[in-house]
Amino acid sequence: MGLEDDPFDHRVTKDGKVLVSRGGRHVVTVAGAQAARLVPLLGKDDATDQELLARATGNYRRGNEKRAHRR
Fold first, then answer.
1. How far apart are the first and last CA of the chain?
2. How far is CA 8 from the centre of its chain?
3. Is residue 3 situated within a structural domain?
4. Is residue 38 in some structural domain?
5. Number of structural domains found in the chain
6. What percent of the chain has a predicted confidence (pLDDT) above 90?
7. What tens digit of pLDDT does each residue of 47-59 get?
8. pLDDT confidence of residue 5
9. Is residue 49 within 8 Å of residue 10, measured between CB atoms?
């Protein structure tokens, strides 16, 4: 299941935190300096937002999972 099938959602709170959810479930809260860097980058386009949110949650495929799994 990819980001197209099950995209991340986000909401920025008044105090600058980014609440990230996926499939209707809260995944992570990004706060502090990381949130301050993330917020201005969000909202430009959907694909970029999905990549940024995936990276923020640590749920980002690096391309080596299949190879590492086979070993």
1. 23
2. 6
3. no
4. yes
5. 1
6. 69
7. 999 999 999 988 6
8. 72
9. yes
Phi, psi dihedrals of residue 20, rounded to the nearest 5°: -110, 130
The answer to whether the predicted template modeling score (pTM) of the entire model surpasses 0.85 is: no
Look up tokens 């920025």; give the residue.
12
The bridge status of strand 8-12 relative to strand 25-30 is unpaired
DSSP character for 32?
H
Calpha distance 16→39 (Å, rounded): 8
Domain-embedded: residue 66: no
Residue 21 covered by a domain: yes
Task: Indicate the pLDDT class of residue 6, thresholds 50, 70 and 90.
Answer: confident
Backbone angles phi, psi at 18, to 5 degrees: -115, 115
Give residue 34's domain range.
8-59
Statement: residue 7 has pLDDT above 60: yes
